Amino acid sequence: MSELVGLSFDQPASPYLAFDDDPSSVVDQRNGWGVAWYPNDELGAANIRDPTSGLSAGVTDVMADWGMMRTGLLMAHLRGAAKRATYRDTHPFVRNFAGRSWLIAHNGDLIGDLSKELPLPVHPSLRPVGPTDTEHLFCWLLQHLVDAGADTIEEFGIERLVELLRRANELGALNLLLSDGSTLIGYRCTSAFQPLYAGRFVPPHADGDLNLSRYGVSVRLGGHQDWNRSGVVVSTIDFDDEHFEEITPGGYAAVQGGRVVAPAEFGQGRPAEPGSVAVPSPLALAPRSLYRRLHVEHITAYRYEEPVERSSHRIRLTPVHDKFQQVAKHSVDISVQGLRWDFEDVFGNDVIGLELDAPYQQLSIAVNALVTVAAPIDHPDLLPRTPKLPIMWMPWQEHMMHSYLLPPELPESELEELHTYARSFAQRNRSELLATLDDIAWTIYSDYSYKPGFTTLETTPYEVFSSRAGVCQDFANLMICLARMLNIPARYRVGYIFTGSDYDNKVQSDASHAWVEAFLPMMGWRGYDPTNGSRVGADHVRVAKGRNYRDATPTSGVIYLGGGGTETMSINVRVTEA
Predict the structure, then answer these.
(1) What is the CATH number of domain 291-374+555-577?
(2) How far apart, in whole angstroms, are the C-alpha atoms of residue 423 and residue 515?
(3) Average pLDDT score, the chain
(4) Fewer Cβ neighbours under 10 Å: the N or C end of the chain?
(5) Cα atoms in the Cβ-side hemisphere of radius 13 Å centred on 397
């Protein structure tokens, strides 16, 4: 029995594929194999096929220089050509239609009068080259797209396409992979013919390399260029991996850019975890709440082994007061008396300046605030046009936003990889600005592990990207970097979060929280919380902002004299509904 393997990545990768005769696999092994892919994410496909070889020697030889061939989507049909071992009958089949290459691979047999049940198109350009049931089905499906005036799977409708596959499935066994270069559909037969699985993998991979192997079939993703790739495998082989989930009979998985996008309920029976295939559509992520009245208590305490005789401090702990956030009450009590004054910094933050010249060994700063927060409600249909990427700024706008458009100073190779990663979000969301930002926030939430103490203030966005772990400030820094790579102005926001009873990372409420604000055309600054995979709503109390953490540090200072020995700092934050 033949095997199907489909691979979809978030960025172009160089997967290595091999197979051989394995006594633990199914007994009936027919000859032949075929591999098709989209080089460098172009819409034109390439393919290699051998209808007679029963081992992987041929494919291994051809793929010896596979590192030079980059693709974001690959489809393979292994251990089986059609009933006749001829090139024209060997899967996957490629058909150019609507300005792109389409691919199909099928295992199983459709029987009966196909010309009657699945009538072929009249136009000769859509007629099959060979006599296989697979190519017959392929041309029948494309005719339906022509009749609907659709150029892609997404335009035609994923569920509508699946209904056609179920109709064809009534004629026999049908496990199928279908792709238009952007979307990969994995469809499982309604009978118990052969299982079909989907599994999502997320770096960091074990030993820096992804290596899946079972029944003599191996899929490997290695090399420094591919260490940070994530993707989805749709296959008749489950590869004995805990992240693989069986697709229900008559069910399907639709994959775009290394992410399962449909059906929405796919994989929801398992807890969300890095590597899980359960990735709900991030489009139009809603804030968790739209209106709250919150009480904030925040105490920061410094203790010194030896007295501090002279110091200077800057305190940014005043909540924002604007149309979305009303401050009913606010106080900042400082335990040590000194020269105190209020001013506004270059980022518009309300800052308390403090100069202390009397000896002290303990300094506490206590904040008490009552704030009413309303989430901004933005509906794209109310805008004169839907924001799309790339964003074109007027020269004076770009000058005004210059500080929020510059990426961090990192080695060029790291910036290039982050840029490729950022573009992958735009590509799989058809350059729609809001969907792209939602996707970035959701992906960081679902694919990255929240690990307190794993990083430091000096951890770079690339290190977070490579390790797939960090805390709120790390996730904010990474999303800011990715947004700026797409020419979206982005800034760092510090504040508080009310976690209530439905947030995974409740430790966030024990200290200041950090998130991202992006400047969107015709909308203004809007918040995204990648730590929680949501847009910022009424659970978030905004305080300070800046280019990065250092610009928005809640408390900072310099000791000019004294303060030797050990210094300790404790922070206690409590956010409750008023």
Answers:
(1) 2.60.40.2250
(2) 21
(3) 87
(4) C
(5) 12
CA-nearest of 269, 341, 360, 413 to 567 is: 360
Per residue, what are the HEC states of 123-179? CHHHCCCCCCHHHHHHHHHHHHHHHHCCCCHHHHCHHHHHHHHHHHHCCECCEEEEE
The number of residues in the chain equals: 578
- How far apart CA 574 and CA 296 sit, in angstroms, is 6
Closest CA to 178 of 248, 257, 73: 73
Q: How far apart are CA 543 and CA 512, in angstroms?
A: 10
Give the integer Cα–Cα distance in Å for 463 and 204: 11
Q: How many CB atoms lie within 10 A of CB 27?
A: 6
Among the listed residues 257, 116, 236, 97, the one whose alpha carbon sits nearest the alpha carbon of residue 180: 97
Q: Quickly count: other Cβ atoms within 10 Å of residue 65's Cβ.
A: 9
Who wins on pLDDT, 92 or 65? 92
Task: Provide CB contacts within 8 A for 113, sequence distance 6+.
Answer: none
Per-residue three-class SS string for 423-446: HHHHHHCCCEHHHHHHHHHHHHHH
**Least confident window among 52-56, 118-122, 549-553:** 52-56
Q: In the structure encoding, which two tokens stand for residue 125, read together?
A: 């350009």
Please give the full DSSP string across 522-553, using - where no structure is assigned.
Answer: TTEEEEEETTTTEE--TTEEEEEEESSGGGG-
The identity of residue 209, as a single letter, is D
What pLDDT, on the 0 to 100 scale, is given for residue 48? 87
Burial class (CB in 10 A: 0-12, 13-18, 19+), 394: exposed
Cα 565 to Cα 306: distance, rounded to the nearest angstrom: 6
Pairing of strands 513-520, 490-497: antiparallel
Just give the CATH number of 386-552. 3.10.620.30
pLDDT tens-digit map of 67-123:
557 899 999 998 765 566 677 888 999 999 999 999 999 999 999 889 899 998 888
Q: Which CATH superfamily is domain 3-262 in?
A: Aminohydrolase, N-terminal nucleophile (Ntn) domain (3.60.20.10)
Domain with CATH 3.60.20.10 in the chain: 3-262
Measured between alpha carbons, how far is residue 319 from residues 152, 294, 330, 338, 463 in Å?
48, 12, 8, 23, 31
Measured CA angle at 452 (ends 449, 456), to 5 deg:
105
Q: What confidence score (pLDDT) does residue 306 get?
A: 93
CA 511/CA 292 separation, integer angstroms: 19
Q: Where are the beta strands (DSSP E) in 360-400?
A: 360-374
- Helices 158-169, 133-148: crossing angle, 10 deg rounding: 140
Spatial CB neighbours of 481, under 8 Å, sequence gap ≥ 6: 407, 408, 418, 422, 461
pLDDT band at 64 (very low <50, low <70, confident <90, very high): low
